[in-house]
Amino acid sequence: MPTIRNGADYAAANGLRSREWFDRSDLDGFLHRSWLKSEGVSDEAFRGKPVIGICNSWSELVNCNVHLRGLAEAVKRGVLQAGGFPLEFPVMSLGESLMKPTTMLYRNLMAMDVEESIRSYPLDGVVLLTGCDKTNPASILGAASADIPSIVVTGGPMLTGHWRGKELGSCSDCWHYNEERRAGRITHEEFTEIENSMSRSNGHCMTMGTASTMACVTEALGLTLPGGAAIPAVDSRRAQLAEAAGRKIVELVERDIKPSDILVRDAFENAIRVLHAISGSTNAILHLIAYAGRVGVDLPLTLFDELCESTPWLVDLKPAGRFLMEDFFYAGGLPAVMSQIADLLHLDALTVSTRTVGENITGAEIINTEVIRPADDPLDAGGSLVALYGSLCPDGEEMKVTAADPRLLPHEGRTNVFEDIHDLAARVDEPELDCDETSVMVLRNAGPIGAPGMPEWGHLPIPAKLLRRGVTDLLRISDARMSGTSYGAVVLHVAPESAIGGPLALVEDGDAIRVDVPARRLDLLVDEQELAARREAWTPPARKDKRGYRKLHVDHVLQANEGCDLDFLRGRSKVVSDAVTYL
Fold first, then answer.
1. How far apart are CA 399 and CA 281, in angstroms?
2. DSSP for residue 423
3. For residue 215, which phi and psi values (nearest 5 degrees)?
4. Do strands 150-154 and 85-90 pair parallel, antiparallel, or not at all (unpaired)?
5. Model-level pTM?
6. Pick the CATH number of 404-541 from 2.30.30.100, 3.50.30.80, 3.40.50.10190, 3.40.50.300
7. What distance in Å separates the CA atoms of residue 126 and residue 57, rounded to the nearest whole number?
């Protein structure tokens, strides 16, 4: 029976965690070194040097991440320059456009992949290469729980699309021109031209969609180097940033600066302020709450709304505005935005640059005030995302008010209820659908359990007959998410979801619903006696999956107001102390 020695004691005596594997004189050390040498490296390459993992979510299935192999090479250069030993490894990759029903279903699975890869291998620090929507939060969730020195390099936005003299943004203009096609205002041939003109390069969506939002939020949290969020994917400066991150991770290891040192309450408040200032995606709320659950920070949904009131909206990007991420980069990027709201930020918060937020943004300035507005001339004095509560959503919901028609922000109307996405697809364009410009469209069974995975189904299509009448927005309510590239008066993340008996499950065609954004209310106007009778008659929908990860997800996923993490993943893993060694 081998003697088991506690890895924490061994690492503490030797400085670097990787020495637990490599600086041993026993059979284990022999095997660890021998197998690594089979890759063609010598003792001089790795002995006594910090081992840096490059956690790569590269995949040919994910257009946003297909260029990350090149960035990995740049990171390796930086690690070697700083005296570290880089080792690249793959993790699951999540691509929103091709993965069905949604990458959100697999965010936590990828987070587990990242966490367990870090825990089980001899890594002293890790560089996280991310791109598409959920690869960024999944990587951060895993690294936050593993809690070794970590730095993020995002993949960057693709170049601006162009069609017949118009700038195109994915996928905000996908939704816009699809509605134009359904209304008969553009031809199928023109729609195909737009398809061929929109996505011009590698990189994630170049609107302020979820991927761009999460890149900005990552920078605001202090997990990536300053100015990194907005550099276009194919710009040479992104590779230079990746090289700098390779150098910096070695310093983070030497100084033992970990995610737990950075992801503190002040950092989350900074990120929420930035989220409002850029008019970012509602999806960021879910991810930030999930991060907080991993590091033990209390981050209630009400805080997002509280900070909204005093944070100006400054960035004029689609889907809420006019411009795109390439313009944002040239206008000064996130440091310029943060400098404008410096009086609202915790400037002493630590970042992976090893400097504070205040030091990072010193000297940052706006280059183009059309794209980034100064704080004394904002697009709106308040922020962009609000949380509503009421009889329809006792645990809250989210709404991006900057992307909605203002006339619908206080609104009351009669409902058209769709049982699921298939019912919606079958009936939304039927001529006999009883709807007009005052209607409220309701979709249920689209939440974390009901869908499962909470897909981006919340941007319900406006019925074709209303599009032909010139209707451009309707109040739409669901327990789904929507793409950060989407727009409209869309109420999302209704909690608790309908599949577990939330009030959304009890809504019927013709019920009246009232939204009052100034009062932060969303109410179903049906008396309690009638609702009690409906609740008594309600039966939960059948679960769709009974095996594998999907069953695990449905059995353990938390609701939207808790970040949709799996209940058993909250908190941190014991990385070093679990890495026992057999002598």
1. 10
2. H
3. -65, -45
4. unpaired
5. 0.94
6. 3.50.30.80
7. 13
> What CATH number does the domain located at 4-160+200-372 have?
3.40.50.2300
Confidence of residue 191 (pLDDT cuts 50, 70, 90): very high
For residue 52, the cross-strand partners are: 86, 125
Q: Where do the CATH 3.40.50.2300 domains begin and end in the chain? A: 4-160+200-372
Look-up of token digits 């009638």 = 530
Are the C-beta atoms of 241 and 348 separated by less than 8 Å? no
Q: State residue 4's pLDDT score.
A: 33
Give whole-number Cα distances, 482 to 48, 73, 133, 488, 566, in Å. Answer: 48, 34, 12, 10, 21
Q: What does the alpha-carbon distance between residue 337 and residue 340 come to, in Å, rounded to a whole number?
A: 5
Quote the CA–CA distance of 229 and 153 in Å, as a whole number.
9
The residue type of 86 is P
Pairing of strands 475-478, 490-492: parallel
Instruction: Identify the burial level of 1 via C-beta atoms within 10 angstroms of its C-beta, where 0-12 means exposed, 13-18 middle and 19 or more buried.
Output: exposed
Q: Check if the beta carbon of residue 458 is closer than 8 Å to that of residue 397.
A: no
User: pLDDT value at position 253?
Assistant: 98
Q: How far apart are CA 331 and CA 327, in angstroms?
A: 6
Return the pLDDT at 8: 40
Encoded amino acid at 373, one letter: R
Residue among 550, 577, 581, 578 nearest 8 (CA): 577
Distance in angstroms (rounded) separating the CA atoms of residues 212 and 228: 11
Amino acid in position 568? F
Given a contact cutoff of 8 angstroms between Cβ atoms, the answer to whether 410 and 518 are in contact is yes
Instruction: Note the residue count of the chain.
Output: 583
Q: What share of the chain is helix, strand, coil (3-state, %, to 5)?
A: 40, 15, 45
For residues 561 and 393, is the Cβ–Cβ distance under 8 A? Answer: no
Tokens 């506690």 belong to 6
How many Cβ atoms are within 10 Å of 427's Cβ, its own excluded? 14
Q: What Cα–Cα distance (Å) separates residue 570 from each residue in 197, 304, 318?
A: 43, 21, 34
Is there a cis peptide before residue 518, judged by omega within 30 degrees of 0? no
pLDDT tens readout for residues 91-142:
999 999 899 999 999 999 999 999 999 999 999 999 999 999 999 999 999 9
Parts of the chain belonging to CATH 3.50.30.80 = 404-541
Question: Looking at residue 483, what DSSP letter applies?
Answer: -
